[in-house]
Amino acid sequence: MLLFVVRHSLPFMVVFAVLGFVFPAASVAFFPFLPLVLLTLMTLTLLGMKQRELVRRLSSMTIWLYAVLHSFVFMTVVGLLGWWLSFDEDLLLAVVAVAATGSLFATPAIVRALGFDSLQAMAMTIATTLLLPVSIIAALYFFQQQSVELDWGSYFVRLMIFIFGPMLFSFAVHRLVSEEPLNRFLVKISPYTILLVFAFPFGLIGRFRMLFDQDPVTALYYFLIATGLCCLFFVLSFILYRNKGLDVALTAAITSGNRNVLLTYSVAGALLGPAFLPLAGALQLPTYLLPVLTRWLSRILSK
Question: Which UniProt keywords apply (predicted)?
Answer without folding.
Answer: Membrane, Transmembrane, Transmembrane helix
